[in-house]
UniProtKB/TrEMBL annotation:
The lineage of its organism: Bacteria, Bacillati, Actinomycetota, Actinomycetes, Streptosporangiales. This is Alpha-1,6-mannosyltransferase. Keywords: Glycosyltransferase, Transferase. Gene3D superfamilies: Glycogen Phosphorylase B. Residues 198-348 form the Glycosyl transferase family domain. One of its GO terms (biological process) is carbohydrate derivative biosynthetic process. It holds the Pfam family Glycos_transf_1. It comes from the Bacteria.
Length: 378
């Protein structure tokens, strides 16, 4: 498609912190939604932190990188801390809509938008109550206070699942909307099964498990290794492939000593990732604070059933194409052994077909009140 030939409608400026080249789900959603906005005739502009300033055109529209420091102990995440610089940039861009994918460090931009007369939306990509709980902080009271402030600061709060919306619903937030994310059903498909990759990772008689995600505490990658250890204790010959990188990599290698765990690092090539997910027998998504879980949905689209944490939003995403379990190695092992039955492969693909990026883009544009606006000349 010749994006340059599409007439522009409105300028949607999008802000996100904690984005890196290995950011996974957040980066995917930013790219896919931006490409959808562009295809719909709008002008998306994404602002993210990085090591150096950049201004470039991408398939998802204009991307502006603002220099920002690394957050210690978070495996390369950066944040935009120069408020004055960012405020000047927003003033210069003159957005028609502001979309913020950050619950904390960029919340002040909601006030900027209100003062500038710009309609704003905050996308809740994580559960604040869940993250605070993992940090052993007084989760509910603090989360309620911060979430109430967010709901007041923005015109719209966008949540991707009922689970993610619950912490705003209990506050009676009147500006809450739910819009599921999507998956590329052409890029991720059971047809990408790769016999050569399968032979490299495991013998024909060995069940191949895959954990795909950032190796950080909130994702609980250790649960996948503990599940494998339990399966091996039961006499299974299962093998685990871990696709991802992050601050816990060293600790996970130590925990996996003596177990058949293949650490693949971050898989940047989407085609290779699609082949990996289609080649695995069962995927594991054990993070307890996932608000949607794009990696799990990509596995489903690849025909691979998923074991997920009962505490997250993923049970409503995977439905009968997976299993939701408690945080215990035996529960994960039981679920894996159940999902190895071939009937779950078709169910996984069928479940994924409920979630498409065109539908997600349409829902996000509706949340921005951009359904029937006339074309705008600049």
């Amino acid at each position: 498609m010749d994006y340059a030939a599409i007439p522009l409608n409105v300028r949607i400026v999008r802000l996100a912190n904690f984005v890196t080249p290995v950011s996974g789900g957040l980066r995917t959603s930013l790219d896919e939604l931006g490409a959808g906005y562009l295809a719909a005739g709008h002008e998306p502009v994404l602002i993210v932190p990085g090591a150096a300033a950049r201004d470039e055109q991408t398939r998802a529209g204009r991307r502006i990188t603002v220099p920002g420091p690394m957050v210690p102990g978070m495996g390369g995440y950066r944040v935009i801390t120069a408020r004055r610089r960012l405020r000047r940039l927003l003033d210069d861009l003159e957005p028609d809509r502001l979309e913020v994918s950050d619950r904390t460090t960029l919340r002040w931009t909601g006030s900027w938008a209100r003062a500038a007369g710009v309609r704003s939306a905050m996308v809740s990509h994580e559960s604040l109550a869940g993250l605070l709980r993992l940090s052993h902080l007084p989760a509910r009271r603090l989360a309620d206070r911060l979430n109430h402030a967010s709901a007041e600061d923005y015109d719209t709060v966008i949540c991707t699942t009922a689970w993610a919306a619950a912490e705003f619903e209990r506050l009676g937030a009147p500006n809450l909307v739910r819009v599921p994310l999507g998956v590329d059903l052409d890029a991720f498909t059971p047809g990408h099964f790769d016999a050569r990759m399968r032979a490299e990772l495991a013998r024909p008689d060995q069940p191949l498990l895959v954990h795909c995600g950032r190796l950080s505490p909130e994702k609980r990658p250790d649960r996948s290794i503990r599940a494998l250890a339990e399966l091996r204790r039961r006499g299974s010959s299962a093998v685990l492939a871990v696709a991802g990188d992050g601050p816990l990599l060293g600790a996970l290698r130590t925990r996996a000593a003596g177990l058949p765990v293949r650490f693949l690092g971050h898989v940047a090539d989407r085609e290779r990732l699609a082949r990996l997910l289609a080649t695995a027998d069962v995927a594991l998504a054990p993070g307890p604070v996932e608000t949607f879980g794009l990696a799990a949905l990509e596995a489903l689209a690849s025909g691979t059933p998923v074991v997920v944490s009962r505490d997250s939003a993923l049970p409503e995403v995977v439905g009968p194409a997976g299993a939701a379990v408690d945080d215990h190695p035996a529960a994960y092992a039981d679920a894996i052994q159940t999902l190895l039955h071939p009937r779950f492969s078709a169910a996984a693909r069928e479940r994924a077909e409920r979630y498409t990026w065109p539908a997600a883009v349409k829902g996000f544009l509706r949340a921005h009140a951009l359904t029937d606006l006339p074309a705008r000349r600049r």
